[in-house]
Amino acid sequence: MTRKQRRLTIIGGSLAVLAIAAALVLNAMRDSIVFFSTPAMVAEKHIQPGKRFRLGGLVQPGSLVRGDNMAIAFEVADGSATLPVTYKGILPDLFREGQGIVAEGALDASGVFRADTVLAKHDETYMPKEVADALKKQGNWKDDYAAKAAAAAPQAAARTMEGATQ
């Protein structure tokens, strides 16, 4: 084998190892790329108890129960499925029934999502296209979302300009 052939063999082998490593990393991160899973996605994926993930959806009206020592229980729904959630701690100011939230935690053996972090989404004037499409598909889309988003854009620009001039 000549020197040139050896060099090409080493380069080719290195590229093959690099490609395999990249494929393994991307495969392992496949589920982590999603910002959050909805209750319907949790049911479809059959997520194992103890595996950490983010749960997103709307707090089901009438499901909020406050307990002792800042313990809170509520249900998160996405229009087609509901998942019970428990949390112990201080909730964000914007948290309320009917509001969108993203909670981080894991399922327990009984199928209850034990959250250690709860993030309340401000309003739905802006939302990613995928979320808007999902709401339209489920029949939960409100026609005034687009009007609110259009009205909010000039106000946000004005606030930005005020902050820049001060």
Helix content: 25-40%
Distance between the termini: 72 Å
Main sheet specs: 5 strands, mixed, barrel
H and E order: HHEEEEEEHH
* Mean of all residue-level pLDDT scores: 79
Low-confidence spans: pLDDT under 50, at least 5 residues?
A: 155-166
State which percent range the strand residues make up: 15-25%
Structural class: alpha+beta
Number of strands: 6
Question: Main sheet: which strands, in order across?
Answer: 1-3-4-6-5
Provide a descriptive summary of the structure in words.
By secondary structure, this protein is α+β, with helices and mostly antiparallel strands. The termini are far apart. The protein has 4 helices and 6 strands, in the order H-H-E-E-E-E-E-E-H-H. The chain is elongated. A 5-stranded mixed beta barrel has the order 1-3-4-6-5. Helices cover 39% and strands 24% of the residues.
